[in-house]
Batch of 2 targets.
Target 1
Amino acid sequence: MSRRSGVLEFAVLGLLHDAPMHGYELRKRLNVLLGSFRAFSYGTLYPCLKSLVAQGFLVEDNPDTEYVPATALNGKRSKIVYRLSAEGKQRFEELLADSGPDAWEDEHFGVHFAFFGQTDRAVRMRVLEGRRSRLEERLERMRSSIARTRERFDDYTLELQRHGLESVEREVRWLNELIETERANRTGRPAAGDTSTSDGRGQEAGSSDPPRPPHDRPGRS
Amino acid sequence: MSRRSGVLEFAVLGLLHDAPMHGYELRKRLNVLLGSFRAFSYGTLYPCLKSLVAQGFLVEDNPDTEYVPATALNGKRSKIVYRLSAEGKQRFEELLADSGPDAWEDEHFGVHFAFFGQTDRAVRMRVLEGRRSRLEERLERMRSSIARTRERFDDYTLELQRHGLESVEREVRWLNELIETERANRTGRPAAGDTSTSDGRGQEAGSSDPPRPPHDRPGRS
DNA sequence: TCTCGATATATCGAGCCGATACATCGGAGC
DNA sequence: GCTCCGATGTATCGGCTCGATATATCGAGA
């Protein structure tokens, strides 16, 4: 589990960091959290939850004391509420601090960004700039590819390629705005790059400085 | 094979409609053709080619007469050139004429659009409008979802959702332009809605009227 | 009461990717 | 001429993920 992407693990840990939940609720919030970036199905979520329990990152809060229907078969399938263990909390912090090349690949960037509110400013900057350079490489390849094959395809195919290209260009502009905002919000005090394992701070969301992303006005109704 | 998406089958048939090719070349062109819409790996392509041969849609042009190295093992693995059979050509025409709901889902729309140059105008219109209404449904859901969860997430998460929303909005605007162009290019003669199985027309690309998609100017260098 | 949809957990077949292996060929460098 | 290396070329395997499906409860409404 989570050998390939680890995206789901990260997202689940992050959501359960706020509040305990059961799978059904978790999946709904998951697909809202990640927006149009990614969606997961039950066939992926439930095995992942099991794996996270087996790894010790999650604990099943089995509320046998609470309302259990149990009218049916002896197996009595009731709600299973998952809660983050101490190891799970620590694991989430580790994932938050990761600013390696993986963090700005297609599959990972969305989740990392979704939790930027709990991420150090230095990590945020590295991830944003890494993502941008990644997309600029792709842009270069797409442009030369379109230029090379301009004569070989009909107009609709070229239009599809052009549209894809502009999507990536828009993505880069978005990143530029974000980076610019990060730079503008740079206070005099640099973010404390603590590698200690959550020693003193017992607070849940230790965001001392509000990041304030761009686009204060929602734009349209 | 090709039970779920059929995208690869469609794209392979369409590319081999123009010229015979071997797998390696096919994959390169495939990933250019579909732009940023989709990419396929060898692990998907080669089994699909085998399946298409087994179904009788492709023929292996094994050029034993041409240069065969054969210095190595007795199996002598040389180039395998794939060519469209008559059944394959007919299959491609069928896929081109498909304007059912599947044609405007996420997985299928890109390929269908890539071959719009060989598609009837009536089918093009149905697919574009179907796609647009599909995205507008999604837009509605995303908007209400963001409105409902505005207070539950931090600013970066909301920014991610907003950006996803604007991506879909941009997609709808793009479709609007395309549909408008289709309408403007509507000549007096309606496209012959023939359901016959490619009876008279032996021509390769039977595009009698040039579709002329929007954005004549490439915009930027 | 009976149906229907939302809530809730779980599994299975099949598609698809990434990595990898194997083999050839043309060119760069020596 | 020689070797190394990257592009060309075909092929497979492990495993992640999806869509469909099965099962069961609950609240709302006909």
Target 2
Amino acid sequence: MVQTVPPDGGDDRDESAASASRQASRRVTMQQVAVEAGVSVSTVSKVINGRYGISVATASHVSGVIERLGYETSLVARSLRNQRTNVIGVLVADFEPFSTEVLKGAADAIRGSGFELVAYSAGGRVDEHVGWERRYLSRLMGTLVDGAVLVTPTVTEVDSDGPVVAIDPHTGSTTIPTITAHNLQGARLGVRHLLDLGHTRIAMVTGREDLVSAQLREQGFREALAEAGVAVDESLVVPGAFEAEVAREAAMALLARPGRPTAVFAASDQMALAVIEVAHELGLAVPTDLSVVGFDNIPESALADPPLTTVRQPIRDMGHDAVALLIDLIEGREPADLHRTLGTDLVLRRSTHALGGMPS
Amino acid sequence: MVQTVPPDGGDDRDESAASASRQASRRVTMQQVAVEAGVSVSTVSKVINGRYGISVATASHVSGVIERLGYETSLVARSLRNQRTNVIGVLVADFEPFSTEVLKGAADAIRGSGFELVAYSAGGRVDEHVGWERRYLSRLMGTLVDGAVLVTPTVTEVDSDGPVVAIDPHTGSTTIPTITAHNLQGARLGVRHLLDLGHTRIAMVTGREDLVSAQLREQGFREALAEAGVAVDESLVVPGAFEAEVAREAAMALLARPGRPTAVFAASDQMALAVIEVAHELGLAVPTDLSVVGFDNIPESALADPPLTTVRQPIRDMGHDAVALLIDLIEGREPADLHRTLGTDLVLRRSTHALGGMPS
DNA sequence: CTGTTAGCGCATTCAG
DNA sequence: CTGAATGCGCTAACAG
């Protein structure tokens, strides 16, 4: 790298602004680079993008100025101009345990792909909760990102400019590719574990009624019970809405009443954790007095007291597969399967206990 | 004159724009809304931004068209035009446990602030690892984001258009506001715990030499030992570089040799976890044969076998405070302290054990 | 080889 | 009240 800097050469450097541009109190723009280098903006652009038709001398001179000024192309301006941005967007309602796990998997998949990853959070804004994905998709797609991964979207009827993949969508999707976990099988696994431990008065804290994943988990609960010949006591099936607070109240009612259950299956770890909390407040020991099984296996569940036995969803794999699928779509490749379902399994920790007997 | 046909890239179907507008195979633009509504773009813009000087009739008509077409303003185009974007960027080298924890805290702080959060990942690209923050800062600041939080940046001498806050910077920063944890005190806490357990042959797996946080953790280690009147055996201080693989090799050498240590203090949880792994491979029981203490308290550390005793850094709080500080800066308020240091404490789990005696 | 011209989608003057 | 003109920073035609 030779610094072939042309010595002044009597250029019209009468503009003190040019020399002051080094201060960069304001963003350095291509225009400033051009002025400083004594060339046109298009020449600078060509140098940056390695286009042909630039003399080596000019190129290295301009490069020098770019270096000296610390110039970087504006992602925004470039995005506006170009069709392709090489950026993939991950849209999440909020940065919570589930979505951040997805992000880790997505980051794994992005590595070496030539794409970059932007995570966009709606900020947990409740006012316009429904449809946030549609809005952000519109605002980003086609200008900032080449494709997007929607994490637990409430809407899947998106009509977007580019490819979109949904992870664990709230509704049974048909229009866009999806990555989901095997909710039905997972729930059966969890409940069967409780049954194997001798429990029969098993309660369930369900998720949101409108979400297929929640529905499937409840269905799995019912199927496992039926399989074991245990009748479902409908009064033991309470709504938790996938929210800790709602689950708390449900658990309170459930555990404070006379014929309380000996075990609880919650449709999410967050809710299961809430159940354990309530149990403790009511003076019930977990797992001695009450067994609890969750769903998700978020990292936090291992921190609980006691550590939560739960149904593991391969969240990171889901993030990974979603991005891989999305890249295929963007590159125009035809993926083998547009709807992928990943397996679930049981993670045994210490929140479950054999009924009235010895520990599991 | 044909106004609805894109000048180039015209591989579109030759349907008239009006009827094709519902299809939205292409992004819906303000121009299309204007044509469809029979008004000018500036009128549409005014309606969207609620500017005065629009008749109610026109406004509602345009709103209807916007609704019908599902139009949303392009974040990119708006950013380019406006000074302010109301978006805060969090720049991370990669989505790993530490940075995702920071994100959760940042999300907490953003709620109700009127700002939105974008997380940008360099994608763990190693080729241009040093200086990624400077590049991304240049590319985003002033166009896409109003301010940025840098997570564990390697460079702090940034010369940016807008406010920037660094979390746990790699170098002792003076130029930009920082949020850090009390690394020195934390390390002393961890090592003192080991000393209290009767250990004297305590090894340390250090972090990267060039990072102040790593240096402080090592200093804390030395100070705690000195305080207890225990001489540092330099052969027990090995480099781990904050990387699991490097730590593995260091641990292997450390534990396989004759006079092996009875306890190890690692400068990060990831490295501590690697040490435990190696110990198991060598047939050493943790904590019976070897006590291990980590640093960070990432969620994963509780999942380990055995669960890791570690020094907790309030990572989420750090994310929260960074965003709060940044918003103050953006709004032009003068924050009380530009360099905040948060406390650390010891989390006792089950990877430590009294020397040769009964469990801790 | 290099500069000029023309927008990408939007918001803001300033005229009608 | 509304529309035409201007430019944010950049890239891609087409001229010189």
